[in-house]
Amino acid sequence: MEDAGYRKRRGIGHSTNFVGRPSEWLASCAFNEAPVPLHLWGVREMNPSLFSMLERAGDLAEAGEAFSCYMMAMFGLDPEQRDMASGGKRRYRSSFRRLIEGWGFDSNGPEGAVLKGWVESRFGVCPSFHKEIIEQVSSRAWAAYVEEKMSSRFHNNAIWVQLDLLFEFCQWAIGRFAFPSETHLTLFRGVNAFDAHWIVERTARHEAVIGLNNLVSFSSDRGVAGCFGDTILTARVPVSKILFFNSLLSSHPLKGEGEYLVIGGEFRVRVDYV
């Protein structure tokens, strides 16, 4: 069960990141309640042609098409553009779409480890769960996570750079088309065994501050969230922490309707039992 056992520790983190903000603050309830915009150093500056194309888009669909074309040109993500491996066999190049699709099937799979590793690298917020609770860097759980996140299977095509571009495109699209006047979205997450989670503070019968993994899925549809657990958490999620949402690209790799990938930490939530 993902995110279980949080109450036993405060989590692992480090001070370095690519956004110029204290990592501890990024993971805190204080940031989530009063967020600021987040941008990865150098991504927009190193890809001016992408953002020039985006500025000419008339709507989100056009912007998504421009982004997809840019990523295909930069990283060979078209299915027909494949690497030649030894022995004459072909293999698909690693792509952000495959990672997100894999996350949709199992957030504790190897694709999930790579995504969690990207959050760790770029935001300084380490995962607290991957297949099992991660309590310290000397643990077996941490070693298993590191082995999966660095697997050459997913690191043959500048995969973290792809995710950098995805995050910056997502943030651009949120500000330009998707939610231009919003600082937060009300989103929902279904969980089981809520009392076994890291409950930082229980403020009322139906309210709490809870610690979530460094990358988590939410849904904009309360009914969909209810399919994933007997407890529904309702949170105000900062738009600056959103990595991906279903309508960002016309052909999206997430299965669930209204699904959002969100950088985690401590969130003040409403707790309702189904």
Description:
- A hairpin with a 5-residue loop joins strand 1 (83-84) and strand 2.
- 39% of the residues are buried.
- The protein is globular, with a radius of gyration of 18 Å.
- It has one domain (6-273).
- It contains 10 helices and 10 strands.
- The protein starts with 22 loop residues before the first helix and ends with a strand.
- Helix 4 (48-55) packs antiparallel against helix 5 (60-75), helix 5 (60-75) packs antiparallel against helix 9 (159-178) and helix 7 packs across helix 8 (140-149).
- The chain has 274 residues and is of the alpha+beta class.
- The strands form 3 sheets. Strands 5, 6, 7, 8, 9 and 10 form a 6-stranded antiparallel sheet that branches. It has a two-stranded antiparallel sheet with strand order 1-2. The protein has a two-stranded antiparallel ribbon with strand order 3-4.
Observed structural traits:
274 residues; six-stranded antiparallel beta sheet; alpha+beta; 35% helix; 10 strands
Mean pLDDT over the full residue set: 89
Helical residue percent?
25-40%
Q: What's the shape?
A: globular
Radius of gyration: 18 Å
Number of strands: 10
- Helix-strand makeup class: alpha+beta
| Number of separate structural domains | 1
Low-confidence stretches: 1-9
Note the total helix count: 10
Which range does the strand content fall in? 15-25%
From the N-terminal CA to the C-terminal CA, the straight-line distance is 18 Å
Largest sheet: 6 strands, antiparallel
Order of helices and strands: HHHHHEEHHEEHHEEEHEEE
What does this entry show, briefly?
By secondary structure, the protein is of the alpha+beta class. It has helices at 23-26, 29-33, 43-46, 48-55, 60-75, 96-105, 110-123, 140-149, 159-178, 222-225; strands spanning 83-84, 90-91, 129-130, 132-133, 184-191, 199-204, 207-219, 231-238, 242-245, 259-273. It has one domain (6-273).
